[in-house]
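DM from R.C. (forwarded with permission)

"hey, sorry to bug you on a friday — could you get me a structure for this? deadline for the figure draft is monday and I only need the backbone to look sensible"
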Amino acid sequence: MQERFLRDTIYSYFSYVKDRIAEKVHSTIDEKGEITYEEIERVVFNIIKEQSERWAKTKNIPSIAESFNKTILDKYGNTVNEAIKEVFEELPISKRHSNQLKKIAASLFSKFPEDIEREGISGVVIAGFGKKDTFPSLKSFDLEGIVNNKLKYKEYTSTKIGFETTASIIPFAQSEMVATFMEGVDPFYRGMEESYLSEIFSKYAKIVANSVNHYNDEDKGRLEKKLLMMGEKMFEDHRERLQDYRQEKYIDPVTAVVSILPKDELAAMAESFVNLTSFKRRVTTETETVAGPIDVAVISKGDGFVWIKRKHYFKAELNPQFFTNYYQEG
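My reply, with the result:
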């Protein structure tokens, strides 16, 4: 299973790199009407170099030694070579490119570059109280897979309740509906708005600079650069002000109430968040990845782990012996 995971991961990422090359080649053909072999070589060189630098600048996760990468190439070198040959086919892959791709292949199982999103990641959340803890804490981890008996994982988020942080609401997986409720705006809409505003500030600087007729090209360039710097500062100020407003008007009032809610209402609130996400999936064309019935549990210092709602694959009233055996002591 580990070897299958390694093979599938390498082929998948190499296919992604090949698709990036194909997109650039096709855009060049659309622009010029043709593309030369030398231009294809340049495209291959630039994209593989870019990918290689992204992975090279990232260190291995703390639990995996730097020597692990060499171990992977020594043990699974034939698989990597086959992947390079089968995926990139007739593309001009030099020995230098091949070495870069091999290093990328090894890094796939030891690194988490911040600017590269990966699919197939699962997670685990650990929450509750230690023996000496007065308040609860939470840690969550992203898990990607195991190769050569080494688990690739990273800490996703963590929080610790105390006198400074009295409450926290943390969604996992499909989190957009919880984020919308907590912040008053859909996160995807907010991301689109910020991206569009950033583009406007960038284009506006060039339009203004070019509209000044009595400036020469050098003066226009300086003006554009100055306007860009001012635009970036204004855009960042815009983001910070809106973030402060969301924090003050939406997030803080809810978390303040959560910190004093009784346990049964906390459980109902958590269930409502999941139901909200489930309802959104049900009334849209998105894949219905969240649906009822919903398991709900409460962890408290005094009572420990307590089920509030729990679904079974059988009817509880028809199987009393299951619960008798499950809860018996000894």
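R.C.: lifesaver. The CA atoms of residues 10 and 105 lie 6 Å apart.
me: no worries. The two ends are 38 Å apart (CA to CA).
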